[in-house]
Design goal:
By secondary structure, this protein is an all-alpha fold. The protein has two domains: 134 residues, Cyclin-like (Cyclin A, domain 1), CATH 1.10.472; 120 residues, Cyclin A, domain 1, CATH 1.10.472. Helix content is 53%, strand content 2%. It contains 13 helices and two strands; from the N terminus they run αααβααααααααααβ. The longest helix has 22 residues.
Length: 305
């Protein structure tokens, strides 16, 4: 069964047990947040995310696969540190997370094409071992709760609820979420808050007349901390503006309109906004040593949590 980012807790086994309900999502989202964002090595993350975005651009990869792969990378790096003297690990980690995300989304990702562009070749067994290391580090919890899980809930606050308007609102909020995915500060907010913030930005842009009522409804929701919503909107506004200005050229997101600043969207004021070649073979992979790959991977990824 293909993993659906909008229904992460629903599977063929638990479909009839209420796991897909919105209350279950809000109850579960804190467990899917990274509590050690500050431990993530920014340089390693930047390199890994860059490789994922490059794969998305070069291989015409489903953006949701790239989003999920980055989610796995963030969770992995929050628990393990990469030895900087072995930079090939970053590429192997990116490939493994892309492969896992593709399998979850049942998308055919041509690893050979991507590896050829990057200059390193890892054989299938090496990639598989890295996948297992990622799975173990993530405790095999691959059905991540993300902001996409909450879009439908907050869209229900929008009035009038005509399908074409809702589809347009959701599509634009999705673009905003995808553009903001390379900003590490977004990890500090609950997925539901990020979802609400993206929808407010989208609504202000394309439905300004209906926006005040929508903003009031979302802000008064019992599940939403209004102060966190405000803080998140500041970070998201800076991240999406940066992406639109060309700092995320490799993402290949499509439409490039930029959401308004959080000050405009939420009707509040702020003085400022914050945002802050060894293991592979040359071309045929024959020099990879299977008997030492696992120990090398584990030694190169220090467990930190």
């Amino acid at each position: 069964m293909e993993f659906d980012l909008e229904n992460p807790l629903t599977s063929s086994e638990d479909e009839h047990q209420g796991w897909g309900s919105i209350s279950a999502l809000f109850a579960a989202e804190s467990d899917h947040m990274i509590s050690t964002v500050g431990l993530i090595d920014l340089s390693s993350r930047r390199d890994a995310v860059s490789l994922v975005l490059q794969a998305q651009f070069d291989c015409n990869l489903d953006p949701f696969v790239a989003y999920l792969a980055i989610n796995y990378i963030d969770r992995f790096l929050s628990k393990r540190k990469i030895q900087r003297e072995k930079p090939w690990i970053i590429q192997l980690l990116s490939i493994a997370c892309l492969s896992l995300a593709s399998k979850m989304k049942k998308t055919n990702f041509m690893l050979a094409n991507f590896q050829g562009k990057e200059g390193f070749i890892f054989d299938a067994q090496t990639i598989r071992r890295m996948e297992l290391l990622v799975l173990g580090t993530l405790d095999w919890r691959m059905r991540s709760v993300t902001p996409f899980s909450f879009l439908s809930f907050f869209i229900s606050f929008f009035s009038p609820a005509r399908p074409p308007l809702l589809q347009a609102l959701k599509a634009h909020a999705t673009q905003i979420l995808l553009k903001a995915k390379n900003e590490i500060k977004m990890l500090e907010f609950k997925p539901s808050v990020v979802a609400a913030s993206s929808l407010l930005s989208a609504a202000y842009e394309i439905f300004p007349i209906q926006f005040p009522a929508f903003r009031a409804a979302v802000s008064s929701c019992n599940f939403v901390n209004e102060e966190k919503l405000w803080e998140c909107s500041i970070v998201m506004g800076a991240a999406t503006a940066s992406a639109t200005d060309g700092c995320d050229d490799s993402a290949g997101m499509g439409e490039g309109s930029s959401p308004e600043t959080p000050v405009t969207v939420l009707g509040r004021h702020s003085s400022s906004s914050e945002s802050e070649t060894a293991v592979g073979s040359s071309s045929d992979g024959r020099e990879l040593k299977k008997r030492r790959t696992t120990s090398t991977l584990r030694a190169s990824c220090d467990h930190s949590g």
